[in-house]
TrEMBL record:
Catalysis performed (reactions): citrate = D-threo-isocitrate
Originating organism: Natronomicrosphaera hydrolytica
Cofactor(s) required, per the database record: [4Fe-4S] cluster
NCBIfam families named in the record: PRK09277.1 (NF006757), PRK12881.1 (NF009520)
PROSITE patterns: ACONITASE_1, ACONITASE_2
Protein name, UniProt field: Aconitate hydratase A
One GO molecular-function entry: aconitate hydratase activity
Source superkingdom: Bacteria
Domain Aconitase/3-isopropylmalate dehydratase large subunit alpha/beta/alpha positions: 79-627
Length: 986
């Protein structure tokens, strides 16, 4: 690994300027004007260029790296590797706890490797790191004035061990701060407080402090939200973030940049959420995985910063590394609103204009491709039922629901239909069944996903029909809270205003409050089966709700404050009321959720809920009132007023003028200053959390939350040669769009799952199981939870769901006396964890479970977009601990591919046109993978799959270790192993 060397200035770029903050040094981009057309560079590339220019040392960062960026050519980008040194790291607690656990284990590892306890301090963050505790609150109590208090109490009861550990880390590590629970969501806290846009660096003795663009990586994929503020940053796995914390650069290929031109303004009735769902759909269709997206055009001039942040937040959903908005007047306006220091604000404007980082539409930026959207064509929408990119126009929602009920959820809809006044026609005009005699010429429906830029395609899908209705007798009879009703397919059992995507946006939040106010005035309320919740990303939201008088209106409809944090979107929706849950299971009901989040992958939101839809906060309120997605909200009444008249959505929907006037009257700079004045202090409960001290953590063998992971056990200074894989068995054969949620779920732990059995065996009551996400500091839970999502479908165990596989070993191995391990014979279906143990491949920190020298190596076969979704390092860590040596997939999402390499797991990709099915692979074969000891990025790797009858299938897979540095990580067994060896050598 490269060592740190003194910074040089070969381009004579360093200059001193007078700023409102005083004299400051900068590295002027004009210094490399002769190398390339700096004015035509995408703004995001300019930030990478400045970082290289400022950090040239002739070793890690060279003059060639600077030239590669200064001479950027969008059409040939993606060929050369560059190092990028982000200015800081941001973590949330689900991913932050395992990161700090790894650092604690590395301290232990370096002491064992060197025999010198003094070396422990070498493992320490070298850049500023902020961890925001925001993923631990769960919605247990709701629709009650006591919900916030009850949920907070339960949060501290469940997570006290984790909080003790984080407080230890706060005192043990330098450059490491913790934002306590009940403060806000990490991305909103970052946007409203942590980010500076331009960073004021520490002064070197005898030199002026350096100004440079704020930049970061975060351990949450939605770190990209900060791009809306003109700050370069994206999500990485915890493994890569830890390396950055320890002074390593992010090594990346020069990114391709796609331009997205925005024109016009949002029409009446449309929100920023509708805009981002449209943008997500367009960019997913275009294909921007691994690319930067940069927004420009006249539409930005009046676009509020909060709308930009909403679009930037969902970059992972459209597949991009970033969704970047350059700094301009709206940035300055937002910094002023959120209480930033006046001198900093003035310095940001001065610096960005001087460096050419200020948005200037007169420059013709050199993008790889360009897309364009007239925002005036945006319409109210949702996305679902399983993916954020599957946008559905509100006008088409009911018809699409019936289509998905049949096609996605395999429900026989012909037995459910009842419609005496119309027929229903599928996309393309094929009748789905005549159920009436009088088609309604007024009801025009458009299929989801239809390109509105293609008039012919759009026209072809428009049909004059009426939607079907559920039969009056359909559903399960339920008695709940003194009411009787039928719970049927499509019932909205969760309506949640949650997630950083929208709770940071005052306009959509105020709109939700106004919908609640108008509904309340008309006598409308939520349906009794709907679990409602309001989880803002910042306490400022509560302040402006109170000032606008909207809190009482939201409370009246059950949207009481449940906590400040990421709840439903991450899977912390909490259990449904037992009566509702039993009814869903009894009738095998396809229940739904509507949430203002950014993720709706199957199995993520709640184990009882199969259909999940993303929507704007005001639509969340509307669907809580309707109680079902089986409704045309544009044409059917949402309810009945207190005087018996039908009420339509249009009757309770606020105008843009109403929203804007309320925002201007209720939102103030002083609210931000007051709420962030003591942001690191926390509540009395947080202050009372006791912890240990010292440089080395005192691990507790009885802890079910924090254990020393086995990643560095036996690690020595010598590096073993890269080895081939022989006689491997397939642990799982998976289809397309397998998410990191499928691989490593974040939500509820089932009692009969291996992880549940482990907790039960360790005396943890079910009420205190908490979630997989909260237990990521314990490898013993997490390896048992790998591939344990209730919706994962392993083709090696056809007809099943959940973390099971067919064991193909010979069996007969000794069974360790640990929870979740039972005897198994060849050909039997068993848990993936149990199979791994019996293959002799599994490894955890339990001494009873160790990889056998004669154990069977394992592989995973997968389809397209493997590992899409959250930047979840445990999806790679768990894969590694199960004994998986390689994954062969049709394609990968960026972060998960990187995480696999970071854990020493080989990512291979089928050649173009090949899949497991075209090759005839069913997963029952044994696999030999000839890995070259002198492996190169992108190299073809020979694979031989041998069937039981001896037939051999030979093919070449592409090595998806993409850069030379990644080869070194893989050779060392992972990125942290590489860093630790280097530290020990130093």
């Amino acid at each position: 690994m490269p060592e740190n060397r003194p910074v040089q200035d070969p381009f004579k770029a360093r200059q001193t300027i007078d700023t409102p903050l005083g004299k400051r040094a900068i590295y002027k981009l004009d210094a490399v004007r002769g190398v390339g057309e700096v004015d035509r560079l995408p703004y995001s590339i300019k930030v990478l260029l400045e970082a290289c220019l400022r950090n040239v040392d002739g070793f890690i960062v060279t003059e060639d790296h600077v030239k590669a960026l200064a001479g950027y050519d969008a059409t040939v980008a993606g060929k050369q590797e560059i190092p990028f040194k982000p200015g800081r790291v941001v973590l949330q607690d689900f991913t932050g706890v395992p990161a700090v656990v790894d650092l604690a284990a590395m301290r232990e590892g370096i002491v064992k490797m060197t025999g010198d306890k003094a070396n422990a301090k070498k493992v320490n963050p070298l850049v500023p790191c902020d961890l925001v505790i925001d993923h631990s609150v769960q919605v247990d109590a709701f629709a009650s004035g006591m919900a916030l208090t009850i949920n907070s109490q339960k949060e501290f009861e469940r997570n006290n061990e984790r909080y003790q550990f984080l407080k230890w880390g706060q005192q043990a590590f330098d450059n490491f701060r913790v934002v306590p629970p009940a403060t806000g969501i990490v991305h909103q806290v970052n946007l409203e407080y942590l980010a500076k846009v331009v960073w004021d660096g520490d002064a070197v003795p005898g030199q002026d402090a350096v100004l440079y663009p704020d930049s970061l990586v975060g351990t949450d994929s939605h770190t990209t939200m900060i791009n809306g503020l003109g700050v370069v940053g994206w999500g990485v796995g915890g493994i890569e973030a830890e390396a950055v914390m320890l002074g390593q650069p992010v090594y990346m290929l020069v990114p391709e940049v796609v331009g997205f031109k925005l024109t016009g303004k949002l029409p009446e009735g449309a929100t920023a959420t509708d805009l981002v769902l449209r943008v997500t759909q367009m960019l997913r269709a275009h294909g921007v995985v691994g690319k930067f997206v940069e927004f420009f055009g006249p539409g930005l001039a009046d676009m509020p910063l909060a709308n930009r942040a909403t679009i930037a937040n969902m970059a992972p959903e459209y597949g991009a590394t970033m969704g970047f908005f350059p700094v301009d007047e709206q940035t300055i306006k937002y910094m002023e609103l959120t209480g930033r220091d006046r001198k900093l604000i003035d310095t940001v404007e001065q610096y960005c204009k001087l460096q050419g980082l200020w948005r200037d539409e007169s420059h013709d930026i050199a993008y790889l491709d360009q897309l364009e959207l007239d925002m005036g064509t945006v319409e109210p929408s949702l996305a679902g039922p399983r993916r954020p990119q599957d946008r559905i126009s509100l006008s088409d929602m009911k018809r699409q629901w019936w289509s998905d009920l049949a096609k996605t959820f395999d429900v026989d809809t012909t037995t459910l239909m009842h419609n005496p006044v119309g027929g229903w026609v599928e996309d393309g005009g094929e009748p789905a069944g005549q159920v009436g005699n009088m088609p309604n010429p007024e009801a025009n429906h458009r299929g989801s996903g239809v390109s509105e830029d293609d008039p012919d395609e759009a026209a072809a899908s428009k049909v004059a029909v009426a939607s079907p209705q559920l039969r009056p007798d359909a559903g399960v009879d339920v008695q709940f809270e003194g009411q009787s009703f039928k719970l049927a397919h499509g019932a909205v059992v969760i309506a949640a205003i949650t997630s950083c995507t929208n709770t940071s946006n005052p306009e959509v939040m105020i709109a939700a409050g106004l919908v609640a106010r108008k509904a309340r005035q008309l006598g409308l309320n939520r349906k009794p089966w709907v679990k409602t919740s309001l989880a803002p990303g910042s306490k400022v939201v509560t302040e402006y709700y109170n000032k606008a008088g909207l809190t009482e209106d939201l409370n009246a409809l059950g949207f009481n404050l449940v906590g400040y944090g990421c709840t439903t979107c991450i899977g912390n929706s909490g259990p449904l009321p037992e009566t509702i849950s039993k009814a869903i299971q009894q009738g095998d009901i396809v229940a739904s959720s509507v949430l203002s989040g950014n993720r709706n992958f199957e199995g993520r939101i709640n184990p009882d809920v199969k259909a999940n839809y993303l929507a704007s906060p005001p639509l969340v309120v509307a669907y809580a009132i309707a109680g079902t997605v089986d409704i045309d909200l544009l044409n059917e009444p949402i309810g009945t007023s207190k005087d018996g008249k039908p009420v339509y959505l249009r009757d309770i929907w606020p105008t843009q003028n109403e929203v804007q006037q309320t925002v201007e009257a209720a939102l103030t700079r002083e609210q931000f200053i007051e709420q962030y004045a003591d942001v690191f202090k926390g509540s009395e409960e947080w202050q009372n959390v006791e912890t240990s001290t010292g440089e080395l953590y005192d691990w507790d063998e009885k802890s079910t939350y924090v254990q020393s992971p086995p990643f560095f056990v036996g690690l020595g200074p010598d590096i073993k040669p890269i080895a081939s894989v022989h006689g491997a068995r397939c642990l799982a054969k998976l289809g397309d769009s397998v998410t990191t949620d499928h691989i490593s779920p974040a939500g509820a732990i089932k009692t009969d799952a291996p992880a549940g059995q482990y907790l039960t065996a360790n005396g943890v009551p079910v009420s205190m199981f908490n979630s997989y996400g909260s237990r990521r500091g314990n490898d013993r839970v997490m390896v048992r939870g790998t591939f344990a999502n209730v919706r994962v479908r392993n083709q090696l165990a056809p007809g099943t769901e959940g973390g099971v596989t067919t064991f193909q070993g010979d069996g007969g191995a000794a069974v360790p006396s640990v929870a979740g391990v039972t005897p198994v014979k060849k050909g039997e279906v068993t848990s993936i964890f149990n199979a791994s143990v019996h293959y002799g491949a599994c490894q955890t920190s339990e001494s009873e479970v160790n990889r056998r020298p004669d154990g069977t190596p394992l592989i995973v076969l997968a389809g397209k977009d493997y590992g899409m979704g959250s930047s979840r390092d445990w999806a790679a860590k768990g894969t590694y601990l199960l004994g998986v040596k390689a994954v062969i997939a049709e394609s990968y999402e960026r972060i998960h591919r990187s995480n696999l390499v970071g854990m020493g797991v080989l990512p291979l990709q089928y050649a173009q046109g090949q899949t497991a099915d075209t090759l005839g692979l069913d997963g029952t074969e044994t696999f030999d993978i000839a890995v070259d000891p002198d492996l190169k990025p992108g190299q073809a790797v020979p694979v031989i799959a041998t069937k039981a009858d001896g037939k051999a299938i030979k093919f070449e897979a592409i090595c998806r270790i993409d850069t030379p540095v990644e080869v070194e990580y893989y050779r060392n067994g992972g990125i942290l192993h590489t860093v630790l060896r280097r530290m020990a050598q130093d």
